[in-house]
Amino acid sequence: MVTIFHNPTCATSRNTLALIRNSGVEPEIVLYLEAPPSKDQLKKIIKDMATPVRDVLREKGKPYAELDTANPKWTHDDLLDFMVAHPIVINRPIVVTSIGTKLCRPCEVVLDILADPQRAAFNKEDGEPVINAKDLRV
Question: What is the CATH number of domain 1-32+92-138?
Answer without folding.
Answer: 3.40.30.10
